[in-house]
UniProtKB/TrEMBL annotation, chain A:
Domain of life: Bacteria
Presence of keyword Transport: yes
Keyword Cell membrane included in the entry's annotation: yes
GO cellular component entries: plasma membrane
Name by which UniProt lists this protein: ABC transporter permease
Organism: Vineibacter terrae
From TrEMBL, chain B:
Protein name per Swiss-Prot or TrEMBL: ABC transporter permease
Record field: transmembrane: 12-36, 71-93, 105-123, 135-158, 179-201, 237-257
BP-aspect Gene Ontology terms: transmembrane transport
SUPFAM superfamilies in the record: MetI-like
Annotated ABC transmembrane type-1 domain residues: 67-258
Key words, A-Z: Cell inner membrane, Cell membrane, Membrane, Transmembrane, Transmembrane helix, Transport
RNA-binding listed as a keyword: no
Length: 280, 266
């Protein structure tokens, strides 16, 4: 009797947040799904544009291309930072971690603003180069794909460093010296022993980064200058400027389905709760 | 670690690492000096410096009000997220069946779903019930965005909490609610606190949903910064950005110091 009562209370604990989430979160998401098949006319007309519209093809290609490029760059730089952190003496490691955390927590808008200040045509980099007489006309560093990639890589690096570093800390530090003792060169010991052992960290960080990069909005909107448009910004433009809820909601659903499909594929060989830090 | 692992390829990878770290610092290294420029346009303070842009953010009502709105929305959203998230984490922990696993996964949705997708949803739903451009509307949306972080961090600290303590409290006559308040919650306070910090920062820095469901009445700091960048980039944005950088800096130093102290204690 008493146990039943307790169990009931704990079920209520679960059901309250579930009810709130359903009413205020899943219902709104369902509305987006519903709109995508009912506006402007019922049916899958909006989804046909995925096949027929060149504009949408270009947006999707741009999004995927930027996603792949930024993920790859962030992984390489992030791996190098994590590796250096692993080998650094404790004092220096704290400083490195400090820099990574500072940039991890810094507002996305502050960073976008900073990159604009640096890279725009009358920005600090171009002004300096012109005053030095190295160039006559400003270099196109921002309001294009280059600017978007720079801003996004900057955003993503900490997200690469932290899980990769956590994974590296779990690798037995005697293995590389053992390989060296058995005659492997430094490079071979790294390439054949350390790198394969750190692969799980790289893969789960890479997937997280790629999924994450597909939905970027603020950074591409600030640094792409309306010329390099990724899917999230395109959705916003469809709705805020063109008032085209049909296409906008269809693309939002497509983005969501893409993200969920990637996660489902990933869950076959990585523990999702680990990827999302639930176990840290 | 250096001694234990002397065989890494120091040269090239260390070089890339330091370039990467400098790259991470670059925006900060730029914004801070620019905020002290005496000019009305973005520039480095070459001939002298001034605090005029800091005066501007203090004296301009728009900046002050936006900070007030962000604090109000952030604090309220955090309270809701902490209450709901803690309830959910404790319930799932105590019941632990397949269903509670599913629950915990559903709670992650606001992290997994891209912002633009739920921004559209919030807009559509809020229009229906008249929550557009209201504090309540933005607070609910931000609370839901912060909820997963609370569930994650409270679940993590519950994993280290001995279930028998709660049972002992109840055997000694405490009701479920009493056991929760006086035994469970005090023990998982670090997890709750961490979740609260995450939830607050999520709201404090949130812009995509805010852009869709607010216009004039509710005007948060990110919105003000966004408009400041779009209209004409004035150095007062740099001054505000510098303030945010300093706040972030203090937060991280405090975090590193407390976590070091905790390590020393154990």
């Amino acid at each position: 009797m008493e146990r039943d009562h307790a169990t009931r209370t704990y079920w209520i604990f679960i059901l309250i947040p579930l009810a709130v989430l359903t009413a205020f979160y899943f219902y709104p998401l369902a509305k987006v799904l519903w709109l995508s098949v009912t506006v402007p006319t019922p049916g899958f007309g909006n989804y046909e544009k995925l096949l027929s519209s060149t504009a949408i093809h270009n947006i999707m290609l741009t999004t995927l291309r930027i996603g792949v490029i930024t993920t790859a760059l962030s992984l390489v730089i992030g791996y190098a930072i994590a590796y250096a952190m692993l080998q650094a003496p404790p004092e220096r490691r704290v400083w490195m971690l400090f820099i990574v955390l500072l940039s991890f927590w810094l507002s996305v808008l502050v960073r976008g603003f900073a990159w604009l200040t640096l890279l725009q045509s009358r920005g600090l980099v171009n002004t300096a180069l012109m005053e030095m007489g190295l160039i006559d006309t400003p270099l196109p560093l921002v309001r294009n794909e280059l600017g978007v990639v720079i801003g996004m890589v900057h955003y993503l690096i900490p997200y690469a460093v932290l899980p990769i570093f956590a994974n590296m800390q779990g690798i037995d530090s005697r293995l590389v010296p053992a390989a060296r003792g058995l005659g492997a060169s430094r490079f071979t010991a790294f390439w054949r022993v350390f790198l394969p052992l750190s692969m799980p960290g790289i893969i789960s960080a890479g997937i997280l980064l790629f999924i994450f990069s597909l939905g970027f909005y603020i950074t591409p909107a600030l640094l792409g200058g309306g010329k390099t448009v990724m899917i999230a910004e395109y959705v916003a433009v469809q709705i805020m400027e063109a008032l085209n809820w049909g296409t906008g909601s269809m693309l939002a659903v497509t983005l969501l389905v893409g993200v969920i499909a990637l996660l489902a594929a990933v869950s076959r060989f990585a523990n999702l709760r680990e990827v999302f830090g639930a176990k840290s | 670690m250096t001694a234990a692992n002397p065989s890494g390829r120091r040269g090239a990878s260390t070089f890339v690492a330091w370039i990467g770290l400098l790259f991470l610092l670059l925006p900060i290294a730029v914004v801070v000096p620019v905020s002290f420029t005496p000019n009305r346009y973005l520039s480095l303070p070459v001939d002298g410096w001034s605090l005029r842009h800091y005066e501007a953010i203090v004296s301009e009502a728009a900046w002050r009000n936006s900070i007030g709105d962000s604090l109000l929305v952030g604090a309220s959203a955090t309270v809701i997220a902490v209450v709901l998230g803690t309830l959910c984490a404790v319930g799932c922990w105590r019941i632990s069946s397949r269903l509670s696993e599913v629950m915990r996964f559903l709670m992650l949705a606001p992290i997994i779903v891209p912002s633009i997708v739920h921004a559209l949803g919030f807009y559509q739903a809020w229009v229906q019930v008249g929550l557009i451009d209201t504090y309540a509307g933005l607070i609910i949306a931000h609370a839901l965005k912060g909820l997963p972080y609370v569930v994650i961090s409270v679940s993590a600290s519950l994993a280290n909490f001995d279930l028998r303590l709660e049972q002992a409290a109840r055997n000694l006559g405490a009701t479920v609610t009493q056991a929760m308040y006086r035994v469970v919650v005090p023990c998982i306070r670090p997890g709750i606190l961490a979740g609260a910090v995450f939830a607050f920062i999520t709201s404090w820095d949130e812009l995509v949903v805010t852009m869709f469901i607010t216009s004039r009445r509710v005007y948060t700091l990110p919105k003000k910064i966004w408009d400041g960048i779009q209209d004409n980039i004035s150095p007062s944005v740099a001054a505000m950005a510098t303030v945010l950088i300093v706040v972030t800096l203090i937060g991280i130093v405090a975090h590193l110091l407390t976590s070091r102290r905790r390590q020393d204690a154990t």
